[in-house]
Design goal:
Strand content: 15-25%
Number of domains: 2
Oligomer: single chain
Helix content: 40-55%
Shape: elongated
Number of helices: 13
Number of strands: 14
Radius of gyration: 33 Å
Distance between the termini: 27 Å
Length: 414
């Protein structure tokens, strides 16, 4: 028999029991559509996280203190108090660091914020005026922290949009008072909302002058006696000068700290953060695909079960074919073709259903979380290939069992 005749005969055999074939197809359809829709959700989440990080700028460097060492045991990176406000100011040097465009040091602490009868526990971030442009945090109303505020250690605050909603609801916070860790601050501005997702976490914070945090909220002195900072955000002139800026910053800080051995600071880039996040989200996407793949595996087991039943029911038919000259490979090829047609047919329908589900889920909101989906052709191709392979794998055993039947015993079968 020619391959075309085998396919036509297999389709005819499947069509003789439409309900059973349809139910078998359903398992593969559900599996393939689940793989495509879940991986589309995972890819969408991955792209949303990546775009959130990239929106902060790809030309950012982060300088953080080194680790503390107690009793020969090293602490976490950034646990030492080795960077100061003076270090940050020294980095804006056109001679020693020509690639550095601007710097924005920050000092973080936690705090309880009270406004009237409302209160919230949030992050208090000590910043300088440059923080607004370097980290792209524009104000929606009021004004940002100024040099005068930093110099005078003023008790002023700029609220994140989420904190402003919690404390003041629909009222305008600008000009109102809040108490942070028992001290009264004047609200001078409200930040623009950073949106949902990873960026939305930045709405739950309050910005105050960095000197105010250090001297009035969470004092922690360095060995040099300066104002300690936890991170120095460095804006580089262009993405092409990242390596040059890293070398310049490292040299300058080593000179200032009089370091001959190991650095007491670390420098990382936005690109490194992106690469780490991409590795994590790739694992997440594969995990989602593996979970959905279980249903595809169950569909393959369903194909095997139905094909075994079909072989048992058609034992006499197999005997007649062998008596008329059909070879073992013809019988084997016929039943493998039936199983493969079931899996490919279910895979094709599953791809269409998966695309439809991913389109319907795009922009769908559940509580405060918005789902973004991203469909790509490689997902569909992968799902089709896997479904065909499953049909082939689970169809081989029933086909081999049919091919091994002795024609005389098959003809005697009732």
């Amino acid at each position: 028999m020619t391959p075309l005749m085998v396919v036509a005969t297999a389709l005819s055999s499947l069509g003789s029991n439409k309900l059973r074939a349809s139910l078998t197809l359903l398992g593969i359809v559900i599996g393939v559509s689940a793989v495509i829709s879940l991986m589309s959700v995972g890819r969408g989440a991955q792209e949303a996280i990546t775009s959130s990080i990239e929106s902060l700028g790809t030309n950012l460097l982060f300088v953080r203190p080194g680790a503390t060492t107690q009793g020969g045991i090293a602490g976490a990176q950034g646990s030492a108090a080795t960077l100061t406000l003076e270090d940050a100011e020294a980095l804006v040097d056109p001679i020693f660091a020509p690639s550095v465009l601007a710097v924005a040091p920050e000092l973080r602490t936690g705090g309880q914020v009270v406004a009237g009868r409302e209160n919230a526990s949030t992050q208090i971030v000590g910043v300088t005026p440059e923080y607004e442009t370097v980290r792209n945090f524009p104000v929606e109303s009021g004004q940002f922290i100024s040099d005068i505020h930093v110099e005078n250690r003023s008790l002023v605050a700029v609220l994140g949009s989420q904190v402003a909603d919690k404390l003041f609801d629909l009222r305008d916070p600008v000009g109102q008072f809040v108490r942070i860790n028992g001290r009264q601050f004047t609200v001078i501005g409200v930040l623009e909302s950073q949106g949902s997702g990873l960026q939305g976490l930045l709405d739950d914070q309050i910005l105050v002058p960095i000197t105010t945090v250090y001297y009035r909220l969470a004092s922690e002195r360095t060995a040099q006696g300066g104002v300690s900072v936890q991170t120095i955000n460095v804006q580089v002139a262009s993405a092409d000068e990242m390596d040059a800026a890293t070398a310049q910053i490292s040299t300058l800080l080593r000179l200032r700290h009089r370091i001959n051995g190991e650095d007491d600071f670390s420098i990382s880039s936005q690109q490194e953060t992106l690469e780490t996040l991409e590795e994590t989200t790739d694992t997440f996407v594969l995990f989602l695909g593996a979970i959905a793949g279980i249903s595809l595996l169950v569909g393959g087991i369903g194909i095997m079960n139905i094909m075994l039943v079909s072989v048992t029911e058609r034992t006499r038919e197999i005997g007649i074919r062998k008596a008329m000259g059909a070879k073992r490979r013809d019988i084997l090829f016929h039943f493998v073709t039936e199983a493969t047609l079931l899996s490919i047919g279910g895979g094709g329908i599953g791809v269409l259903l998966g695309i439809l589900l991913s389109r319907l889920a795009d922009g769908w909101t559940l509580g405060t979380q918005t789902f973004n989906t991203t469909f790509s052709g490689d997902i569909a191709v992968l799902a089709l290939v896997v479904s065909a392979a499953i049909g082939l794998f689970f169809g081989i055993y029933p086909a081999m069992r049919a091919a091994r039947l002795h024609p005389i015993e098959a003809l005697r079968h009732e």
